[in-house]
Amino acid sequence: MAPDAVGGAVATDVDVTADLLTETYQTHYTSLLRLAALLLDDLGSCEDVVQEAFIRVHAARGRVREPEKLLAYLRQTVVNLSRSTLRRRLIGLRLLPKPLPDAASAEEGAYDALERDALIQALRGLQRRQREVLVLRYYADLTEAQVATALGVSIGSVKAYGSRGIEALRARMEEHR
């Protein structure tokens, strides 16, 4: 005979009665719940799996060939439903969008804006050449040679203006704090 939906053979002569299923439920519900708990991670899912197993076996009770194997059919159904539950969870996790990186709080954003404003004010207070060298070197990310060419000065002058500009900028930022 061909196997049915709950793992048994299709019956022709003996049926599992609703009374036998009710008795099996009352006697073995807790042990089936423990079985599901070993396979799943939360009580709600375990209860759902066991309930679904009883519903499926109840729907197929007329096809269960040997009533004494009812508990075995229920156990196998609980295992199969637990696997399906875990499989659906894994698929769901794969389909979830990736979390966005942590966004700065409003306070952090405000603090960053204040720092940026203070830096801009401090840069404006530097000598023209110092400001130009620092902006080209660190904001525009040019090399010392590229800054020297852009400003029409020597590399040594770029180094000197840069060094003095950083010191003056550091002093101004400390004053701001």
TrEMBL record:
Keyword presence, Transcription regulation: yes
Domain of life: Bacteria
Residue ranges of every copy of the RNA polymerase sigma-70 region domain listed in the record: 25-89
Keywords noted in UniProt: DNA-binding, Sigma factor, Transcription, Transcription regulation
GO biological process, one term: DNA-templated transcription initiation
Domain RNA polymerase sigma factor 70 region 4 type: start-end pairs: 117-169
InterPro entries from the UniProt entry: RNA_pol_sigma-70-like, RNA_pol_sigma-70_dom, RNA_pol_sigma-E_actinobac, RNA_pol_sigma70_r2, RNA_pol_sigma70_r4_t2, RNA_pol_sigma_r2, RNA_pol_sigma_r3/r4-like, WH-like_DNA-bd_sf
SUPFAM superfamilies with a match to the protein in the record: Sigma2 domain of RNA polymerase sigma factors (SSF88946), Sigma3 and sigma4 domains of RNA polymerase sigma factors (SSF88659)
Example GO molecular function: sigma factor activity
Stretches of the chain forming a coiled coil according to its record: none
Family: Belongs to the sigma-70 factor family. ECF subfamily.
Name this polypeptide is given: SigE family RNA polymerase sigma factor
